[in-house]
Specification:
The complex is a heterodimer of chains A (112) and B (111).
Chain A (H helix, E strand, L loop, with lengths): L3 E4 L2 E5 L4 E7 L6 E7 L6 E7 L4 E4 L2 E6 L4 E6 L8 E9 L4 E4 L3 E6 L1
Parallel strand pairs in A: 2-11
Antiparallel strand pairs in A: 1-3, 3-8, 4-5, 4-9, 6-7, 7-8, 9-10, 9-11
Chain B lengths: L3 E3 L3 E4 L5 E7 L5 E8 L3 E10 L2 E4 L7 E6 L2 E6 L8 E8 L6 E2 L3 E5 L1
Parallel strand pairs in B: 2-11
Antiparallel strand pairs in B: 1-3, 3-8, 4-5, 4-9, 5-6, 7-8, 9-10, 9-11
Classes of the chains: A mainly beta (112), B mainly beta (111).
Chain lengths: 112, 111
């Protein structure tokens, strides 16, 4: 099955700086890569996703890049704000998005 | 707004007890999932269901079973709870290609 590795496990950034989280996956058939954000005590929620026919996708301060050859994808958060503090999970899916395999998560802390 | 509701937010059970975790979604989604969340291990898939009465094992099915008698309801069953099943359990649902919607989670403690 799919194996997703995520780094780093924790990330502390100064407010206004950028944060980057990286994930690698094992199954070359994977074609869907979402990112979920989980605030403390809340449910994980989708923040951005990318499919294998696209190399990069942006949504305001968040961007995701995908390198299918190297089998890795990254989340970039620019101009970080305190509300960006959360646990972020990457995931990968093959079989037409059927079953998502998640990374271990990255706890991001934005220092004021 | 999609709503995925888990019946219990917090449960405390004793070793050997049978535990039922219930999940209901209100958006007519075909696919429903049970994940387990543990610090440092992320979200691990226990079981999923792609239709009524259909189920497939995920990555960590041992010690668990599931039931899906109606499209909107997906239950996770621990036949004989053990202390290593103390965890946060997250139910989720989705259409075939689309966003996975999670419930609030059920925190289970097995003593």
């Amino acid at each position: 099955g799919e194996n997703v590795e995520q780094h780093p496990s924790t990330l502390s950034v100064q407010e206004g700086d950028s944060a980057v989280i990286k994930c690698t996956y094992s199954d070359s058939a994977s074609n869907y890569f979402p990112w979920y954000k989980q605030e403390l005590g809340k449910r994980p929620q989708l923040i951005i996703d990318i499919r294998s026919n696209v190399g990069e996708k942006k949504d305001q301060r968040i961007a995701v890049t995908l390198n299918k050859t190297a089998k890795h994808f990254s989340l970039h958060i620019t101009e970080t704000q305190p509300e960006d503090s959360a646990v972020y999970f990457c995931a990968a899916s093959s079989r037409n998005d059927y079953k998502l395999s998640f990374g271990a998560g990255t706890t991001v802390t934005v220092r004021a | 707004d999609v709503k995925v509701t888990q019946s219990s937010r917090y449960l405390v059970k004793r070793t050997g007890e049978k535990v039922f975790l219930e999940c209901v979604q209100d958006m007519d989604h075909e696919n429903m999932f049970w994940y387990r969340q543990d610090p440092g291990l992320g979200l691990r898939l226990i079981y999923f269901s792609y239709d009524v009465k259909m189920k497939e094992k995920g990555d960590i099915p041992e010690g668990y079973s599931v039931s899906r008698e109606k499209k909107e309801r997906f239950s996770l069953i621990l036949e004989s709870a053990s202390t290593n099943q103390t965890s946060m359990y997250l139910c989720a649902s989705k259409v075939q290609t689309g966003e996975l919607f999670f419930g609030e989670g059920s925190r289970l403690t097995v003593l």
